[in-house]
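S.,

As promised, the pyridoxal-5'-phosphate run. Input:
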Amino acid sequence: MADTTPRIPSRQWRGVLTEYADRLGITEATPVVTLGEGGTPLIPAPALSARTGAKVYVKFEGMNPTGSFKDRGMTMAISKAVEHGAKAVICASTGNTSASAAAYATHAGITAAVLVPEGKIAMGKLSQAIAHNAQLIQVQGNFDDCLDLARDLAENYPVHLVNSVNPDRIAGQKTAAYEVVEVLQDAPDFHLLPVGNAGNYTAYSRGYTEELERGVTTKLPRMFGFQAEGSAPIVLGHPVAHPETVASAIRIGNPASWELALAAREATDGYFGAISDDDILAAHRILSAEVGVFVEPASAIGVAGLLQRSEAGVIPAGATVVITVTGHGLKDPQWALRSEDGSEVKPTVVPVDSAEIAGVLGLVRATS
Ligand SMILES: *Cc1c(COP(=O)(O)O)cnc(C)c1O
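Predicted complex:
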């Protein structure tokens, strides 16, 4: 049969498995399942630099194909699953893993089953999983229950687990650290990011450690991870039975990569801190209104963490800081319509009348 796969011009970013094939152990035997993930922008954020005196960059992972960093790990996990003959994959999810698993599985022509906590995932993410043909099951429990069930099913039935307890996920996600180093030509002094299951925290730490071992960087960044106050097991030092936060992507009470994350904190002189929902939403507003980057609430926590740590005197002037903003704002857009006092923002309605609009905008007619 003729190969009908369209040829991709070499100048187009080819996805992380092809771009970093040698570093990820990808060979001819691996069928590369890609939607072009990775290659996301590292955006200088002058508004955050002005507030802190540091050189602040935002790694905008919402620019991935399904709108979150999960795609970096999913291209790897689904490719490896297909390589091993899997016909179906399963995952537990607070939303973004299911969106990503659904898209990559359907692209590969296999089935994705996703377990999500009932009523606890953002509408955009639910829509993605359904649109991409996943078998979506709402579980009457929280994320941690879903992960226990997914593990149990993968152990006892012919489905392949693609949560971040699957090492292929972490391997794919480390590529974000490679990209940061390529742009900055060294590691940053600090790297800040949200922590849910702590898979991404672990992945970045690994990526940076490899770069140091390869001799392309001079240091490890201090890895600072942030959890929401109502969902901060690592900060508290014990699991949280009923995690609560507006940041649904990190509403996790018993992180899967807890031990790995503690080791990474140790190795990088890192830190785990807790942030209130109010501070998360304030940071969300700063990212939207001052930086021009629209994220979902969980993704703003690194910015809140920067402001908190900067205030505490931990971030020296001139330090290079990278903050990963993990998911796109369009997935969970309702928060943008909430003003600081919690009231709903209502756009002004006017008749078809330019003078009236000029009045609302405070414009004064130009005199000629
Ligand atoms: C999954 C996710 C996180 C948390 O990542 P972990 O690897 O579970 O710590 C944070 N933000 C968003 C948007 C996510 O989808």
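Strands lie at 42-44, 55-60, 88-92, 111-117, 135-139, 160-161, 190-194, 222-228, 271-275, 320-325. The first strand starts at residue 42 and ends at 44.

- D.
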